[in-house]
Amino acid sequence: MVSKGSQLTLDSFTKKAKLEAKNVISERSSKNGWIWVRLGDFVETTSGGTPLRSRKEYFGGNIPWVKSGELEDNWIFNTEETITEEGLRNSNAKIFPKGTLLVAMYGATVGKTAILGVDAATNQAVCAIFPKKDLIDPFFIRYFIIWKRDELIKSSFGGAQPNISQTVIRNLMIPLPFKDGKPSIEEQRRVVARLEEITAKIEQTKKLREEALKETEKIMQTTLHQTFKKVEHYGFKTLNDVCIINPSKKEVRNLPDDMEVSFVPMSAINEVSGKIENPSTRKLKDVKKGYTYFKEGDVLFAKITPCMENGKSAIARKLVNGIGFGSTEFHVLRPLNEVTPEWIFYFIRQKSFRELAARFMTGSVGQQRVPEEFLRNARIPVPPIPLQKSLTNQLDKIKEKVESLLKYQNIISEKLEALTKTVLKRAFEGGL
């Protein structure tokens, strides 16, 4: 059931769209023949269904079955799952023909679209749109939904996950080029062809940027590998030999409960820079039970997937009163006399180290963790302290340059996204 608050959100979105259309109809129709119309007056919509999961005979057949998570503004030729004829008959699933426009109504991909490249069925979280013949082009609708996706998501309602309905989709106001009193399918297809030409170039640029991003990230990893490789002749020790791993909270048991300390949740660690960002301050009494303890200069290492694989690690610096508490999903490494915090930090930042750690993870899927035993047994080269400091100073400089390059790549990415929106806006204002 839709809540009162959700319905108000839905109503306000629809009213806003209609008001927007009313304000521009006369101007646009007089200038270039474009008129805002209700999408539902020009299309039919429906959705699919899911066969009973408990009936194994309903799955694994030869009918492609699309779930909403597979919609990524793409063409769909293959699906993660298939269903059988029996599963089709005994559910609300139905086969849609090749070329059907799909829109995700639920979950993380809400508002995303896809075009079927094969005949396929879908689940109930996917809306299928069927334009009325020679009135509106499905690719024209698709580009419009991509343009208006943010507004669609804002209008979504539901609990933990956003969702939209067929009603929201049918009530969308869309501008159409008119000629001789009816929508011009030829002009729509001309606009679509122009959009495909421009967006293809933008997508190509995005791919080049992604390749540049990967190459930039390789710079740091290659440098880390070479750094630790060239000092192997100094000999290896285990992390347990050179660090206290997960130090005891007994160290703070005699401190006053009202002492302020830093608090670092997992989200406060930037996985790219390896720095703690925006930690909060709490009373010792509020965190000494149920959280992980560390102090100034300790190295934090995320033990849970996917944070560990993503590189969530940092040196604890500028802690309030030199003390910190944080997520229980951290392992803490406290360097002893033979290693510096920076040497440990860069060692565990190696992709090869994280890949090895992943092989030793324990626990159920989605909740796997690196056991403490792995860290205790991990071997690290231990050159003299002066050499460690010299090498990590060099790594700091390279890391700073790499972060600057990554920041630049992200700015380019944001500009490309803005360019796409600008092109779509111009298209639906009759400017292409």
SSE topology sketch:
Blueprint: H1 4-31, E1 34-38, E2 43-47, E3 59-66, E4 74-76, E5 81-83, H2 85-89, E6 95-96, E7 101-104, E8 113-116, E9 120-122, E10 126-131, H3 138-147, H4 149-155, H5 166-170, E11 173-179, E12 182-183, H6 185-229, E13 236-238, H7 239-242, E14 243-245, E15 260-264, E16 269-270, E17 275-276, E18 280-283, H8 284-287, E19 292-295, E20 299-302, H9 307-310, E21 313-315, E22 323-326, E23 330-335, H10 341-348, H11 351-359, H12 372-377, E24 379-381, H13 385-427
Parallel strand pairs: 3-9, 4-8, 15-22
Antiparallel strand pairs: 1-11, 2-10, 3-5, 6-9, 7-8, 7-10, 11-12, 13-24, 14-23, 15-18, 16-17, 19-22, 20-21, 20-23
Helix pairs in contact: 1-4, 6-13
What this model shows, in words?
The protein is α+β, with helices and mostly antiparallel strands. It has two domains: 4-183, Adenine-n6-DNA-methyltransferase TaqI, Chain A, domain 2 (Alpha-Beta Complex), CATH 3.90.220.20; 232-382, Adenine-n6-DNA-methyltransferase TaqI, Chain A, domain 2 (Alpha-Beta Complex), CATH 3.90.220. Helices cover 41% and strands 22% of the residues. The strands form seven sheets. The protein has a five-stranded mixed beta sheet with strand order 2-10-7-8-4, covered by helices on one side. The longest helix is centred in the middle third of the chain and has 45 residues, at 185-229. The chain is elongated, with a radius of gyration of 28 Å. Residues 1-11 and 20-31 have low confidence and may be disordered.
